[in-house]
Amino acid sequence: MKRSRLARVAVTATVATGLVLSGCGHAGPPTGGSNGGINVLTTDAPQMQNLKKLTKRYFTARTGINVNYTMLPENAARERMNREFATQAGHYDVASVSAYEVPIYSANGWLTPLDSYAKADKQFDQSDIFPNLITALTGKNGKLYAEPFYGEGSFLMYRKDFFRMDGLTMPANPTWAQVARLAARLDGTDGASGICLRGLPGWGQNLAPINTVVNTFGGTWYDTGWDARLTSPDFKRAVEFYVHLLRTYGEPDAQRMGVLQILDRFVRGKCAMMYDATSLASSIEADSSPVKGKVGYVPAPHDKTKRSGWLWTWAWGIQKASRHKDAAWKFISWASSKQYQAEVGRELGWTAAPAGSRESLYDNPEYQKAAHAWYRQEYTAETQSADPKDPGVGPRPYAGIGFLAIPEFAVLGTAVSQQISSAIAGQQSVVTALQKSQDLAQASAARHRGE
Hints:
It is a single chain. Residues about 1-25 have low confidence and may be disordered. By secondary structure, this protein is α/β, with parallel strands linked by helices. It is built from 19 helices and eight strands.
Protein backbone atom coordinates (compact mmCIF):
# COMPACT_ATOMS: atom_id res chain seq x y z
CA MET A 1 0.00 0.00 0.00
CA LYS A 2 2.86 2.36 0.79
CA ARG A 3 4.44 1.80 -2.65
CA SER A 4 1.10 2.57 -4.33
CA ARG A 5 0.76 5.88 -2.44
CA LEU A 6 4.31 6.86 -3.37
CA ALA A 7 3.64 6.02 -7.01
CA ARG A 8 0.50 8.15 -6.95
CA VAL A 9 2.44 11.11 -5.59
CA ALA A 10 5.08 10.65 -8.30
CA VAL A 11 2.51 10.58 -11.10
CA THR A 12 0.60 13.58 -9.69
CA ALA A 13 3.80 15.59 -9.41
CA THR A 14 4.76 14.75 -12.99
CA VAL A 15 1.36 15.88 -14.28
CA ALA A 16 1.60 19.13 -12.35
CA THR A 17 5.08 19.79 -13.70
CA GLY A 18 3.85 19.18 -17.23
CA LEU A 19 1.08 21.75 -16.83
CA VAL A 20 3.44 24.35 -15.38
CA LEU A 21 5.93 23.90 -18.22
CA SER A 22 3.26 23.72 -20.92
CA GLY A 23 4.12 26.02 -23.81
CA CYS A 24 7.39 27.21 -22.29
CA GLY A 25 10.35 27.79 -24.55
CA HIS A 26 8.29 28.83 -27.58
CA ALA A 27 6.70 32.03 -28.78
CA GLY A 28 3.36 32.77 -27.13
CA PRO A 29 0.02 32.14 -28.81
CA PRO A 30 -1.51 34.66 -31.21
CA THR A 31 -4.11 37.08 -29.96
CA GLY A 32 -6.88 35.30 -31.85
CA GLY A 33 -8.36 35.30 -35.31
CA SER A 34 -9.37 38.58 -36.87
CA ASN A 35 -12.00 39.39 -39.45
CA GLY A 36 -11.36 37.24 -42.48
CA GLY A 37 -8.70 35.14 -40.73
CA ILE A 38 -8.23 32.13 -38.47
CA ASN A 39 -5.42 30.81 -36.28
CA VAL A 40 -4.36 27.18 -36.68
CA LEU A 41 -2.11 25.23 -34.29
CA THR A 42 -0.38 22.17 -35.77
CA THR A 43 2.52 19.82 -35.34
CA ASP A 44 5.56 20.71 -37.44
CA ALA A 45 5.30 17.60 -39.62
CA PRO A 46 6.09 17.37 -43.36
CA GLN A 47 2.41 16.96 -44.26
CA MET A 48 1.59 20.13 -42.31
CA GLN A 49 4.40 21.99 -44.05
CA ASN A 50 2.96 20.96 -47.39
CA LEU A 51 -0.45 22.23 -46.28
CA LYS A 52 0.98 25.58 -45.29
CA LYS A 53 2.81 25.83 -48.62
CA LEU A 54 -0.42 25.41 -50.57
CA THR A 55 -2.81 27.36 -48.35
CA LYS A 56 -2.54 30.83 -49.86
CA ARG A 57 -2.90 29.65 -53.45
CA TYR A 58 -5.62 27.06 -53.02
CA PHE A 59 -7.58 28.21 -49.95
CA THR A 60 -7.13 31.90 -49.22
CA ALA A 61 -7.35 32.89 -52.89
CA ARG A 62 -10.75 31.17 -53.13
CA THR A 63 -12.28 32.04 -49.77
CA GLY A 64 -10.57 35.28 -48.74
CA ILE A 65 -9.77 33.65 -45.37
CA ASN A 66 -6.20 34.15 -44.19
CA VAL A 67 -4.66 31.34 -42.17
CA ASN A 68 -2.09 32.10 -39.48
CA TYR A 69 -0.22 28.88 -38.66
CA THR A 70 1.61 28.09 -35.44
CA MET A 71 3.76 25.02 -36.09
CA LEU A 72 5.59 23.34 -33.21
CA PRO A 73 7.37 20.01 -32.62
CA GLU A 74 4.88 17.35 -31.55
CA ASN A 75 5.54 17.47 -27.80
CA ALA A 76 5.49 21.28 -27.73
CA ALA A 77 2.36 21.36 -29.89
CA ARG A 78 0.60 19.00 -27.48
CA GLU A 79 1.62 21.09 -24.48
CA ARG A 80 0.34 24.26 -26.12
CA MET A 81 -2.85 22.54 -27.21
CA ASN A 82 -3.55 21.08 -23.77
CA ARG A 83 -3.28 24.49 -22.12
CA GLU A 84 -5.22 26.26 -24.87
CA PHE A 85 -8.14 23.86 -24.88
CA ALA A 86 -8.27 23.29 -21.11
CA THR A 87 -8.58 27.03 -20.50
CA GLN A 88 -10.68 27.67 -23.64
CA ALA A 89 -8.52 30.72 -24.28
CA GLY A 90 -9.78 31.11 -27.84
CA HIS A 91 -6.38 31.98 -29.27
CA TYR A 92 -6.64 29.18 -31.83
CA ASP A 93 -9.67 28.38 -33.93
CA VAL A 94 -8.41 25.04 -35.28
CA ALA A 95 -5.85 22.56 -33.98
CA SER A 96 -4.39 19.29 -35.27
CA VAL A 97 -5.82 16.98 -32.65
CA SER A 98 -5.07 13.26 -32.72
CA ALA A 99 -7.00 10.08 -32.04
CA TYR A 100 -5.65 10.36 -28.47
CA GLU A 101 -6.91 13.89 -27.73
CA VAL A 102 -10.37 13.71 -29.30
CA PRO A 103 -12.03 11.35 -26.75
CA ILE A 104 -10.57 13.39 -23.87
CA TYR A 105 -11.26 16.86 -25.27
CA SER A 106 -14.77 15.97 -26.40
CA ALA A 107 -15.67 14.55 -22.98
CA ASN A 108 -14.55 17.81 -21.40
CA GLY A 109 -16.56 19.96 -23.81
CA TRP A 110 -13.50 21.58 -25.37
CA LEU A 111 -14.33 20.82 -29.01
CA THR A 112 -17.13 21.96 -31.33
CA PRO A 113 -19.31 19.15 -32.74
CA LEU A 114 -18.92 19.01 -36.52
CA ASP A 115 -21.95 16.90 -37.51
CA SER A 116 -24.08 19.79 -38.72
CA TYR A 117 -21.20 21.29 -40.71
CA ALA A 118 -20.36 17.99 -42.40
CA LYS A 119 -24.01 17.28 -43.18
CA ALA A 120 -24.58 20.70 -44.76
CA ASP A 121 -21.34 20.56 -46.79
CA LYS A 122 -22.29 18.10 -49.55
CA GLN A 123 -19.05 18.67 -51.47
CA PHE A 124 -17.04 17.47 -48.47
CA ASP A 125 -18.44 13.93 -48.84
CA GLN A 126 -18.34 12.55 -45.31
CA SER A 127 -19.30 9.09 -46.60
CA ASP A 128 -15.92 8.86 -48.37
CA ILE A 129 -14.00 8.84 -45.05
CA PHE A 130 -12.99 5.49 -43.52
CA PRO A 131 -15.63 4.42 -40.96
CA ASN A 132 -13.06 3.37 -38.33
CA LEU A 133 -11.57 6.89 -38.38
CA ILE A 134 -15.02 8.36 -37.90
CA THR A 135 -15.43 6.02 -34.92
CA ALA A 136 -12.10 7.15 -33.47
CA LEU A 137 -13.09 10.81 -33.84
CA THR A 138 -16.59 10.44 -32.39
CA GLY A 139 -17.27 11.23 -28.74
CA LYS A 140 -19.13 9.05 -26.26
CA ASN A 141 -22.24 11.13 -26.98
CA GLY A 142 -22.18 9.97 -30.59
CA LYS A 143 -21.18 13.34 -32.02
CA LEU A 144 -18.31 13.89 -34.48
CA TYR A 145 -15.57 16.18 -33.14
CA ALA A 146 -12.80 16.14 -35.75
CA GLU A 147 -12.13 15.40 -39.41
CA PRO A 148 -9.05 13.36 -40.40
CA PHE A 149 -6.20 15.05 -42.25
CA TYR A 150 -4.36 11.76 -42.69
CA GLY A 151 -4.31 8.38 -41.01
CA GLU A 152 -2.05 5.41 -40.57
CA GLY A 153 -2.26 1.80 -39.55
CA SER A 154 0.53 -0.67 -38.89
CA PHE A 155 1.85 -3.58 -40.91
CA LEU A 156 4.81 -5.93 -41.16
CA MET A 157 7.44 -5.02 -43.77
CA TYR A 158 9.92 -7.64 -44.94
CA ARG A 159 12.78 -8.07 -47.39
CA LYS A 160 11.52 -10.31 -50.17
CA ASP A 161 15.06 -10.93 -51.42
CA PHE A 162 16.21 -12.10 -47.97
CA PHE A 163 13.29 -14.52 -47.80
CA ARG A 164 14.18 -15.96 -51.20
CA MET A 165 17.83 -16.21 -50.16
CA ASP A 166 16.88 -18.27 -47.09
CA GLY A 167 14.12 -20.27 -48.82
CA LEU A 168 11.40 -18.76 -46.63
CA THR A 169 7.80 -17.73 -47.32
CA MET A 170 5.96 -14.96 -45.51
CA PRO A 171 2.45 -16.04 -44.46
CA ALA A 172 -0.35 -13.89 -45.87
CA ASN A 173 -1.62 -13.14 -42.34
CA PRO A 174 1.23 -13.98 -39.94
CA THR A 175 1.00 -14.73 -36.24
CA TRP A 176 3.58 -13.38 -33.83
CA ALA A 177 4.82 -16.94 -33.24
CA GLN A 178 5.50 -17.28 -36.97
CA VAL A 179 7.27 -13.92 -37.03
CA ALA A 180 9.52 -14.99 -34.15
CA ARG A 181 10.49 -18.19 -36.00
CA LEU A 182 11.19 -16.22 -39.18
CA ALA A 183 13.30 -13.69 -37.26
CA ALA A 184 15.42 -16.55 -35.88
CA ARG A 185 15.99 -17.92 -39.40
CA LEU A 186 16.71 -14.51 -40.95
CA ASP A 187 18.94 -13.07 -38.24
CA GLY A 188 22.39 -12.44 -39.70
CA THR A 189 21.28 -12.67 -43.35
CA ASP A 190 23.58 -10.30 -45.24
CA GLY A 191 24.52 -8.77 -41.87
CA ALA A 192 20.95 -7.78 -41.01
CA SER A 193 18.98 -8.20 -37.80
CA GLY A 194 16.09 -10.63 -37.95
CA ILE A 195 13.63 -7.87 -37.08
CA CYS A 196 13.61 -4.21 -36.08
CA LEU A 197 11.14 -2.90 -33.50
CA ARG A 198 10.86 0.28 -31.48
CA GLY A 199 12.68 0.12 -28.15
CA LEU A 200 13.03 3.83 -27.41
CA PRO A 201 10.91 4.91 -24.43
CA GLY A 202 7.85 7.06 -25.03
CA TRP A 203 4.11 6.43 -25.10
CA GLY A 204 4.21 7.18 -28.82
CA GLN A 205 7.43 5.21 -29.33
CA ASN A 206 7.88 1.69 -27.98
CA LEU A 207 4.43 1.53 -26.38
CA ALA A 208 2.65 1.98 -29.73
CA PRO A 209 3.70 -1.46 -31.07
CA ILE A 210 3.89 -3.05 -27.61
CA ASN A 211 0.24 -2.19 -26.92
CA THR A 212 -0.85 -3.96 -30.11
CA VAL A 213 1.04 -7.06 -28.93
CA VAL A 214 -0.56 -6.80 -25.48
CA ASN A 215 -4.03 -6.49 -27.03
CA THR A 216 -3.70 -9.50 -29.33
CA PHE A 217 -2.06 -11.63 -26.62
CA GLY A 218 -5.17 -11.07 -24.48
CA GLY A 219 -3.79 -8.45 -22.08
CA THR A 220 -5.36 -5.24 -20.85
CA TRP A 221 -4.07 -2.34 -18.77
CA TYR A 222 -7.19 -2.25 -16.57
CA ASP A 223 -10.18 -4.43 -15.80
CA THR A 224 -13.66 -2.93 -15.86
CA GLY A 225 -13.27 -1.78 -12.26
CA TRP A 226 -10.13 0.21 -13.16
CA ASP A 227 -7.79 -2.09 -11.29
CA ALA A 228 -4.42 -2.35 -13.05
CA ARG A 229 -3.58 -5.64 -14.81
CA LEU A 230 0.03 -5.12 -15.91
CA THR A 231 1.24 -8.15 -13.94
CA SER A 232 -1.48 -10.45 -15.29
CA PRO A 233 -0.29 -13.55 -17.19
CA ASP A 234 -1.40 -12.30 -20.63
CA PHE A 235 0.16 -8.85 -20.22
CA LYS A 236 3.37 -10.40 -18.89
CA ARG A 237 3.51 -12.94 -21.73
CA ALA A 238 3.12 -10.17 -24.32
CA VAL A 239 5.86 -7.95 -22.94
CA GLU A 240 8.22 -10.87 -22.34
CA PHE A 241 7.67 -11.94 -25.95
CA TYR A 242 8.39 -8.45 -27.31
CA VAL A 243 11.47 -7.93 -25.15
CA HIS A 244 12.87 -11.39 -25.92
CA LEU A 245 12.28 -10.97 -29.67
CA LEU A 246 14.03 -7.62 -29.67
CA ARG A 247 16.92 -8.66 -27.44
CA THR A 248 17.54 -11.90 -29.34
CA TYR A 249 16.92 -11.02 -32.98
CA GLY A 250 16.50 -7.25 -32.98
CA GLU A 251 18.78 -4.33 -33.73
CA PRO A 252 21.75 -3.40 -31.48
CA ASP A 253 21.07 -0.81 -28.75
CA ALA A 254 17.36 -1.32 -29.31
CA GLN A 255 16.49 0.73 -26.21
CA ARG A 256 17.77 3.78 -28.12
CA MET A 257 15.88 3.06 -31.33
CA GLY A 258 12.66 4.89 -32.15
CA VAL A 259 10.67 4.95 -35.35
CA LEU A 260 13.12 7.14 -37.29
CA GLN A 261 16.12 5.09 -36.22
CA ILE A 262 14.65 1.73 -37.22
CA LEU A 263 13.39 3.19 -40.48
CA ASP A 264 16.93 4.30 -41.25
CA ARG A 265 18.26 0.83 -40.47
CA PHE A 266 15.62 -0.85 -42.61
CA VAL A 267 16.28 1.41 -45.58
CA ARG A 268 20.03 0.75 -45.25
CA GLY A 269 19.43 -3.00 -45.41
CA LYS A 270 20.11 -3.70 -41.73
CA CYS A 271 16.74 -5.33 -40.94
CA ALA A 272 15.09 -8.38 -42.49
CA MET A 273 11.68 -7.38 -41.11
CA MET A 274 10.15 -4.33 -39.43
CA TYR A 275 6.76 -3.93 -37.75
CA ASP A 276 5.67 -0.30 -37.77
CA ALA A 277 3.48 2.39 -39.33
CA THR A 278 2.03 2.19 -42.83
CA SER A 279 3.14 5.79 -43.39
CA LEU A 280 6.78 4.62 -43.57
CA ALA A 281 6.19 2.88 -46.90
CA SER A 282 6.54 6.08 -48.92
CA SER A 283 10.08 6.52 -47.54
CA ILE A 284 10.95 2.85 -48.08
CA GLU A 285 9.81 3.03 -51.70
CA ALA A 286 11.26 6.48 -52.45
CA ASP A 287 13.45 6.76 -55.54
CA SER A 288 16.49 7.34 -53.33
CA SER A 289 15.84 4.29 -51.14
CA PRO A 290 18.32 1.39 -51.53
CA VAL A 291 15.54 -1.10 -50.76
CA LYS A 292 12.94 0.24 -53.19
CA GLY A 293 11.16 -2.68 -54.87
CA LYS A 294 12.67 -5.24 -52.48
CA VAL A 295 10.05 -5.02 -49.73
CA GLY A 296 6.83 -6.93 -49.13
CA TYR A 297 3.97 -5.84 -46.87
CA VAL A 298 1.55 -8.00 -44.84
CA PRO A 299 -0.97 -7.29 -42.03
CA ALA A 300 0.10 -6.66 -38.46
CA PRO A 301 0.93 -9.97 -36.73
CA HIS A 302 -1.70 -11.35 -34.38
CA ASP A 303 -2.12 -13.99 -31.66
CA LYS A 304 -5.51 -14.45 -29.95
CA THR A 305 -7.31 -11.83 -32.03
CA LYS A 306 -7.89 -11.89 -35.79
CA ARG A 307 -6.66 -8.30 -36.21
CA SER A 308 -4.10 -6.34 -34.24
CA GLY A 309 -2.94 -3.30 -36.23
CA TRP A 310 -3.11 0.13 -34.68
CA LEU A 311 -5.14 3.08 -35.97
CA TRP A 312 -3.86 6.63 -35.78
CA THR A 313 -4.89 9.93 -37.27
CA TRP A 314 -4.01 13.57 -37.12
CA ALA A 315 -7.28 15.40 -37.52
CA TRP A 316 -8.72 18.90 -37.42
CA GLY A 317 -10.84 20.08 -34.49
CA ILE A 318 -12.45 23.44 -33.76
CA GLN A 319 -12.00 24.87 -30.30
CA LYS A 320 -15.35 25.39 -28.55
CA ALA A 321 -14.28 28.94 -27.68
CA SER A 322 -13.48 29.89 -31.28
CA ARG A 323 -15.26 33.02 -32.50
CA HIS A 324 -14.74 32.05 -36.15
CA LYS A 325 -16.32 28.60 -36.37
CA ASP A 326 -17.76 29.02 -39.87
CA ALA A 327 -14.39 30.09 -41.28
CA ALA A 328 -12.72 27.30 -39.30
CA TRP A 329 -15.02 24.74 -40.90
CA LYS A 330 -14.25 26.08 -44.38
CA PHE A 331 -10.57 25.49 -43.65
CA ILE A 332 -11.22 21.95 -42.40
CA SER A 333 -13.48 21.23 -45.35
CA TRP A 334 -10.61 22.10 -47.68
CA ALA A 335 -7.69 20.59 -45.72
CA SER A 336 -9.46 17.22 -45.28
CA SER A 337 -10.96 17.08 -48.76
CA LYS A 338 -10.53 14.99 -51.90
CA GLN A 339 -9.81 18.28 -53.63
CA TYR A 340 -6.81 19.00 -51.39
CA GLN A 341 -5.41 15.51 -51.93
CA ALA A 342 -5.58 16.10 -55.69
CA GLU A 343 -3.87 19.48 -55.33
CA VAL A 344 -1.00 17.88 -53.42
CA GLY A 345 -0.80 15.12 -56.02
CA ARG A 346 -0.49 17.59 -58.86
CA GLU A 347 1.90 19.96 -57.09
CA LEU A 348 4.10 17.67 -54.98
CA GLY A 349 3.54 14.16 -56.31
CA TRP A 350 0.88 11.60 -55.45
CA THR A 351 2.89 9.82 -52.77
CA ALA A 352 2.93 13.15 -50.87
CA ALA A 353 -0.88 13.24 -50.75
CA PRO A 354 -2.18 12.78 -47.18
CA ALA A 355 -3.31 9.16 -47.25
CA GLY A 356 -5.12 6.81 -44.93
CA SER A 357 -8.41 8.66 -44.62
CA ARG A 358 -10.51 8.50 -47.82
CA GLU A 359 -11.74 5.68 -50.04
CA SER A 360 -11.47 7.81 -53.16
CA LEU A 361 -7.69 8.19 -52.90
CA TYR A 362 -7.25 4.42 -53.11
CA ASP A 363 -9.58 4.30 -56.13
CA ASN A 364 -7.54 6.99 -57.89
CA PRO A 365 -5.43 5.45 -60.72
CA GLU A 366 -2.75 8.11 -60.28
CA TYR A 367 -2.29 7.28 -56.60
CA GLN A 368 -2.39 3.55 -57.36
CA LYS A 369 0.38 3.98 -59.92
CA ALA A 370 2.59 6.07 -57.63
CA ALA A 371 2.03 3.83 -54.57
CA HIS A 372 1.67 0.52 -56.39
CA ALA A 373 4.11 -1.28 -54.05
CA TRP A 374 2.06 -0.74 -50.92
CA TYR A 375 -1.30 0.99 -51.44
CA ARG A 376 -3.39 -2.21 -51.24
CA GLN A 377 -1.76 -3.29 -47.98
CA GLU A 378 -2.00 0.27 -46.63
CA TYR A 379 -5.70 0.32 -47.43
CA THR A 380 -6.23 -3.02 -45.71
CA ALA A 381 -4.28 -1.90 -42.64
CA GLU A 382 -6.33 1.30 -42.40
CA THR A 383 -9.75 -0.21 -42.96
CA GLN A 384 -9.22 -3.47 -41.07
CA SER A 385 -7.32 -2.31 -38.00
CA ALA A 386 -8.26 -3.53 -34.57
CA ASP A 387 -11.45 -1.92 -33.25
CA PRO A 388 -10.51 1.32 -31.42
CA LYS A 389 -13.34 0.72 -28.93
CA ASP A 390 -12.62 -2.99 -28.40
CA PRO A 391 -9.10 -3.85 -29.61
CA GLY A 392 -8.35 -6.95 -27.58
CA VAL A 393 -9.84 -9.88 -25.71
CA GLY A 394 -12.53 -9.18 -23.13
CA PRO A 395 -14.03 -5.92 -21.84
CA ARG A 396 -11.97 -2.91 -20.82
CA PRO A 397 -12.99 0.53 -19.53
CA TYR A 398 -10.98 2.59 -22.03
CA ALA A 399 -10.72 3.04 -25.79
CA GLY A 400 -7.59 3.01 -27.92
CA ILE A 401 -5.34 0.49 -29.70
CA GLY A 402 -1.75 1.73 -29.40
CA PHE A 403 -2.66 4.02 -26.51
CA LEU A 404 -5.24 4.50 -23.75
CA ALA A 405 -7.66 7.37 -24.37
CA ILE A 406 -7.43 8.72 -20.82
CA PRO A 407 -5.74 11.96 -19.70
CA GLU A 408 -3.34 10.13 -17.40
CA PHE A 409 -1.82 8.06 -20.18
CA ALA A 410 0.58 10.70 -21.50
CA VAL A 411 2.45 10.59 -18.19
CA LEU A 412 1.71 6.99 -17.23
CA GLY A 413 2.55 5.60 -20.66
CA THR A 414 5.88 7.39 -20.73
CA ALA A 415 6.77 6.07 -17.28
CA VAL A 416 5.84 2.48 -18.19
CA SER A 417 7.69 2.72 -21.50
CA GLN A 418 10.83 3.68 -19.60
CA GLN A 419 10.55 0.59 -17.41
CA ILE A 420 10.12 -1.68 -20.44
CA SER A 421 12.97 0.04 -22.28
CA SER A 422 15.16 -0.69 -19.27
CA ALA A 423 14.22 -4.37 -19.59
CA ILE A 424 15.09 -4.25 -23.30
CA ALA A 425 18.50 -2.87 -22.32
CA GLY A 426 18.95 -5.78 -19.89
CA GLN A 427 19.07 -3.50 -16.86
CA GLN A 428 16.16 -5.25 -15.13
CA SER A 429 13.85 -8.19 -15.71
CA VAL A 430 10.44 -7.87 -17.37
CA VAL A 431 8.87 -9.06 -14.10
CA THR A 432 10.51 -6.20 -12.19
CA ALA A 433 9.62 -3.66 -14.91
CA LEU A 434 5.97 -4.71 -14.86
CA GLN A 435 5.71 -4.74 -11.07
CA LYS A 436 6.91 -1.14 -10.99
CA SER A 437 4.57 -0.32 -13.85
CA GLN A 438 1.66 -2.01 -12.07
CA ASP A 439 2.08 0.32 -9.09
CA LEU A 440 2.17 3.37 -11.36
CA ALA A 441 -0.90 2.24 -13.30
CA GLN A 442 -2.89 1.48 -10.15
CA ALA A 443 -2.07 4.91 -8.73
CA SER A 444 -2.91 6.70 -11.99
CA ALA A 445 -6.46 5.28 -12.12
CA ALA A 446 -7.40 6.22 -8.56
CA ARG A 447 -9.89 8.86 -9.66
CA HIS A 448 -11.56 6.42 -12.05
CA ARG A 449 -12.15 4.08 -9.10
CA GLY A 450 -13.62 6.96 -7.12
CA GLU A 451 -10.78 7.05 -4.58
